[in-house]
């Protein structure tokens, strides 16, 4: 087995259901001991914790002959993030991979979005990814190795309707991943972001009222969450040792490498710009290269395979 995780320890957040569950099971199948973290809350993340989803995944792993422990701490808590990393150290003696998968949704149109809707999503997706990554960083640095995988989204990379909070968080996650890759490369630590396409509780919450929306939802139902796991495990294994600072997408049997922002046009003047010269020269010069207001579904229009 090339992408082997034998002897390694992985922490997977939001691993009680959906994509996270698939990753935890695949990690264990590849030989890793797994800390299965899940708060067990609703999609909004505002109700009481229930660790039973995490424990159910642990039971599946143990019954298959693997090693795993459940953890119910919140990624939104800096102390909680340290507790889940400590669970890996206390139970298995080390930590080798962190998969930041935990998420919540508070979808609403921007002009109707409340501060709490924004803060709650940023706290889980972006701050949560920082919290857990930072908690593991000292161990990764000391041992001279480690792998991060952070879940981003085409809602942030491309755009989506009614998801200003989620889009901002997920594009922030891509930036966080790149910064970690740059800062920790000298310690043998790598960091990548993955945009998963999968039918999960979160996707199931998307409203569908028009025929077009209903058709899109039916297409999304074909996206199997377990299909994300093999790529994530490969990234975390030694086979992914030379892969860092990248943004990928996984959509059933398709794997994407996303572009990253770089300059595509320049305008220069020896006299310096004025508002009028910008309006007269720069806007017309750049206009043909402006990106349209695409949503994710406008870009990924073909049926998943």
UniProtKB/TrEMBL annotation:
InterPro entries on file: KR_dom, NAD(P)-bd_dom_sf, Peroxisomal_Beta-Oxidation, Sc_DH/Rdtase_CS, SDR_fam
One Pfam family this sequence matches: adh_short
Cited PROSITE patterns: ADH_SHORT
Ketoreductase domain mapped to chain residues: 8-205
Source superkingdom: Bacteria
Protein family per UniProt: Belongs to the short-chain dehydrogenases/reductases (SDR) family.
Protein name per Swiss-Prot or TrEMBL: SDR family NAD(P)-dependent oxidoreductase
Source organism of the structure: Oleomonas cavernae
Classification of source organism: Bacteria, Pseudomonadati, Pseudomonadota, Alphaproteobacteria, Acetobacterales
